[in-house]
Every structure is written in structure tokens, then in C-alpha cells.
Design a protein that fits this description.
It is built from no helices and 11 strands. With 127 residues, it is mainly β.
Length: 127
């Protein structure tokens, strides 16, 4: 089992930055894929970015493109989401997800069915 705990959310002014962290604990796997999602009030969960065990990165082709960056510190079993130029529309609960199967995603639908999910951290961007 893998447990995921997100942190780093909070209140920030538009144009500001935040860095979210997701710490993974439990059994260590050599092939651990991780991803970030977000869910705004009244909206469906939305894929943000993913980083595979190999380091390959997939970014969402939406409003976060070019502003958010996913990274990983394997030694600390932690992934990060650096968020710059934040907008009020970015307000959401941000979730971390992980998968140990080492599968090759054929499309983004794979990421919505990952094995493990954190409880989320709230990001609020004021104008």
C-alpha cells in the first residue's frame, strides 16, 4: 500500500506562486508514477500533470500549460507542483495520485484510474 499526503496549499494573491508537495510512504516501488489533479467547486476532477517513474512528464493542454511544473525528488519519495502566475480560476482542491504498475498510458484516461489518491490540499487564489 502507498499513502499520499499533500501539503502546501493556502491563500495566495493573483499573480503569485505556490509549491505543492506530495509525500509518499509505505512500500517502496521502483516504478512509481505520480500525478496531480484539481477539482474546483461544482466542477469535475481535472488532470494537471504527471511524471512517470522514468521521469517522463505529461502536461495538461489547458489553462495551466506553461504556468505549472511537476517535478520529483526520488530520494525523499516526494513530488512537487510549482504553480506560477496563479489566477482566480486556479482555485481548487489539488489531489496527488500514484500508481505502481509501470503501465504505459495510451491516453489521459489512464491517470484518472490510478491506484492511490491523497485527500487533497486547498488552493485559493484571490483577485
Amino acid at each position: 500500500q502507498v499513502q499520499l499526503v499533500e501539503s502546501g496549499g493556502g491563500l495566495v494573491q493573483a499573480g503569485g506562486s505556490l509549491r505543492l508537495s506530495c509525500a509518499a510512504s509505505g512500500r517502496t516501488f521502483s516504478r512509481l508514477d505520480m500525478a496531480w489533479f484539481r477539482q474546483a467547486p461544482g466542477k469535475e476532477r481535472e488532470f494537471v500533470a504527471a511524471i512517470r517513474w522514468s521521469g517522463f512528464i505529461t502536461n495538461a493542454d489547458d489553462s495551466v500549460k506553461g504556468r505549472f511544473t511537476i517535478s520529483r525528488d526520488s530520494a525523499k519519495n516526494t513530488v512537487y507542483l510549482q504553480m506560477n502566475s496563479l489566477k482566480p480560476e486556479d482555485t481548487a482542491v489539488y489531489y496527488c495520485a500514484a500508481d505502481t504498475r509501470g503501465l504505459v498510458p495510451k491516453n489521459l484516461a489512464f491517470y484518472y484510474e490510478m491506484e492511490y489518491w491523497g485527500k487533497g490540499t486547498l488552493v485559493t487564489v484571490s483577485s
